[in-house]
Amino acid sequence: MKTSPLVIAGVTLRSRLFLGTGKYSSGAVMSESLAASGAELVTMALRRVRTDGGHDDIMSQLDTTKYRLLPNTSGVRDAKEAILAAELAREALGTNWLKLEIHPDPKYLMPDAIETLLATRELVKRGFVVLPYVHADPVLCKQLEEAGAAAVMPLGAPIGSNLGLETRAFLEIIIAQSRVPVVIDAGLGTPSHAAAALEMGADAVLVNTAIAAAADPVAMGAAFKLAVEAGRLGFEAGLAARSTKGEAHATSPLTSFLASV
Amino acid sequence: MKTSPLVIAGVTLRSRLFLGTGKYSSGAVMSESLAASGAELVTMALRRVRTDGGHDDIMSQLDTTKYRLLPNTSGVRDAKEAILAAELAREALGTNWLKLEIHPDPKYLMPDAIETLLATRELVKRGFVVLPYVHADPVLCKQLEEAGAAAVMPLGAPIGSNLGLETRAFLEIIIAQSRVPVVIDAGLGTPSHAAAALEMGADAVLVNTAIAAAADPVAMGAAFKLAVEAGRLGFEAGLAARSTKGEAHATSPLTSFLASV
Amino acid sequence: MKTSPLVIAGVTLRSRLFLGTGKYSSGAVMSESLAASGAELVTMALRRVRTDGGHDDIMSQLDTTKYRLLPNTSGVRDAKEAILAAELAREALGTNWLKLEIHPDPKYLMPDAIETLLATRELVKRGFVVLPYVHADPVLCKQLEEAGAAAVMPLGAPIGSNLGLETRAFLEIIIAQSRVPVVIDAGLGTPSHAAAALEMGADAVLVNTAIAAAADPVAMGAAFKLAVEAGRLGFEAGLAARSTKGEAHATSPLTSFLASV
Amino acid sequence: MKTSPLVIAGVTLRSRLFLGTGKYSSGAVMSESLAASGAELVTMALRRVRTDGGHDDIMSQLDTTKYRLLPNTSGVRDAKEAILAAELAREALGTNWLKLEIHPDPKYLMPDAIETLLATRELVKRGFVVLPYVHADPVLCKQLEEAGAAAVMPLGAPIGSNLGLETRAFLEIIIAQSRVPVVIDAGLGTPSHAAAALEMGADAVLVNTAIAAAADPVAMGAAFKLAVEAGRLGFEAGLAARSTKGEAHATSPLTSFLASV
């Protein structure tokens, strides 16, 4: 049962599951989890890339011939830092793809709308393929699209919370009006959350904590793989309508049937 | 990635997805949807079984060599009718497995606790393998287990509503204390609902409307197959904890790193 | 702004808030909380009533000239024990009103459907005004009504959980089809939960833990009083419809207006 | 039972319920609903104010000696239009208080983060008391506070949707870190929604559709008045904790007690 492929910036991706590389207990576990998940696009923080060309233990386990890298700017606090980080990442990793994350507040890691839009405009000019991580803010997502973002990455719930699609009412609007792919990016804590995101028409999801912090990250990677496929297939198959009226379809009692036997 | 098999009454089932046979547009569509879903256990209403040994159009499409039949008593209004229907089903279909459904009210099709417990006791005595469909009532589920039910089938939401796991708080108690398999039976409207049921530790789910009433029932059958596998695998892999505190794990700002480059 | 009164078994009650008497730090705090809540109907466990005619410290604070007592059978495990407890309560407290609670399981305190229906039938015969505490089970509530219950008391969430209206989908059905008052009885943790119960058409709510375990039980009693009045008034005023389409009503831009100034 | 007063920009408000003036069937109904609600702060769109000093039918019913006016810029699409509208409102209505609303999209009326921050900075310089309507975006709310906003007005759900506190996870963060009052501004559809907003620590709520579109707007205004008082009182009284473990506090069975009687 095939589903339609995802295309971002002209690149076709078979998997609609993007993975983060943080919080794994070891590079080997990360590597196996990535393989089990079927992910093709993998994000990593610039601070994990050593500027001498080396990497930390975990990153050295990442077979860059198998995955498309999506460096992220996690840890930067404004557009200026983001642009510097982006240039360093492009040089060090040889890719112009960038997950743009700007969060001035280290406590909740919430994204900064204003700086993100500014940075997106500049980075697009500089030739980056920009995927900005933002609030589930429909106006901002539209502005990012107009600024040339290759996709938008609205959050589902506070990062690391595993709460799921808390922003559903806004994601629906974003999905309805977006002309670039919509990737739900934070707070997805279970395979069913990922499936629900795809079911509502999101183009992809990015997952990290829920897999890395699972008791068995490799099995959880495989579970998310299946869930994302299930959700997309469900979306394409056309979900049946919900009913809040509480009335079931009446069936005729078996009484007369039983009496006639 | 293998998950543990489900065993009901000594029978091992590879699939944790059970399917209904109502509401399909044709027998051919039903047949293909069943195949795509990977279901092994299939339920059908007794009233669809002709007592002359024949069947209606849809039932005649069901290859009974491929599926384990789970006749249900949908349409009966009390224990007495249920027992009569059960005996007829056993004779007509050659199986002692039974999904016991008793709903005196034709409007909401809500199950009757009292009659269901009475009928379960009698049917167990008569040698049936009884899977009763009931409210998500922890005390009743325990009583049914003590009465010899082979599994319990609490509902997730009103039948046909597609609302999902509305009874979650009670299903958690039922799952925690049950010694027989727990099969969530009504109201599951999307693949993600099914995944969520398995993630919380339900042993299986029964789905009908969500697949039969989908725009593409065959693809939806396949979507539910994946979702159920995803949910079970996620459950076995050990979900990461939810956080409602709203605080992310702090990361060190990139500022000093960027300054040092 | 007056709302319609509640009538149970021919008795008119001005307040739609019923209170429990458990878990208070002292009799004085309980007494003040009751006064602040405006409750008229107050429930207490039989085990707190001394059979020598005396009471424990807390119960002795209860001015029985101000409140209508609703003794409950909390702690009994079956119909037989419930009937014995009911008779003792009637004798000790001089009222034939009874909140019938039967929970065989001391861990979750979930009600027993079968024993509750049996006891209701017998207690009605014996002249009691029976208000049974049950699952949000629409068929059972109808059976209790037919058995002569003066009201039904379906639970909103597991007792003591403070989770709110987890059983909403089923309460809606119960309210739609009940001819006796529907009192939501467990799990209401905040004033807004109580307001929501009344808004959906419940006739009253019973609250205990949420008030008794608040930092300031007296103020919380007053808060629940207001919330219950708000919810009932909102119900009678006719709530505006929800919209899930996400589209606001378009307004004409001010642009031309501003240009014309 | 008194609750603490709300202070915005040095002005003490007795009521934590702010009302809009749109969608009423007549000026008389609006006027009565305002009175019943106890609101002191009332918002109205600039476009309803005639520049010749007159007003439309509805606005002429508004007794400006009783209410503090909060003109809003509904209908403007960017900061430039907002500033022009603000100046006109100040001149026409004689108040420097302003609810800043900028929504470029006429379909969903979602606020524009970037233009709202720009306009806030400029309007504060010009001596306005600015209350900006924004997404439930914690970073943006902090930036608005730093820009001199007198309060922040994050939305609860899409405007006019009556869905309630869909943004709860983000509102909690905003409330935790804000040093100016937090007023929840859109999507509150029932008295219980308003109560829940206050219970979680919001300083006030703004309601329009839910009252104006009720079957009986005057009674609904009174219902919201009670609900807001209930929610605030509940917040100050200290809500009891929720439990998701499902276990009730065990009670000792009455069995031995009954046996001993």
TrEMBL record, chains A, B, C, D:
Binding site for 1-deoxy-D-xylulose 5-phosphate: 160, 186-187, 208-209
One Pfam match: ThiG
Pathway: Cofactor biosynthesis; thiamine diphosphate biosynthesis
Active site, UniProt feature: 99 (schiff-base intermediate with dxp)
Keyword tags: Cytoplasm, Schiff base, Thiamine biosynthesis, Transferase
Catalytic activity, as annotated: [ThiS sulfur-carrier protein]-C-terminal-Gly-aminoethanethioate + 2-iminoacetate + 1-deoxy-D-xylulose 5-phosphate = [ThiS sulfur-carrier protein]-C-terminal Gly-Gly + 2-[(2R,5Z)-2-carboxy-4-methylthiazol-5(2H)-ylidene]ethyl phosphate + 2 H2O + H(+)
InterPro entries: Aldolase_TIM, Thiazole_synthase_ThiG, ThiG
Family membership: Belongs to the ThiG family.
Annotated function: Catalyzes the rearrangement of 1-deoxy-D-xylulose 5-phosphate (DXP) to produce the thiazole phosphate moiety of thiamine. Sulfur is provided by the thiocarboxylate moiety of the carrier protein ThiS. In vitro, sulfur can be provided by H(2)S.
Subunit (UniProt): Homotetramer. Forms heterodimers with either ThiH or ThiS.
PANTHER family, per database record: THIAZOLE SYNTHASE (PTHR34266)
Record's protein name: Thiazole synthase
Lineage summary: Bacteria, Pseudomonadati, Verrucomicrobiota, Opitutia, Opitutales
Record gene name: thiG
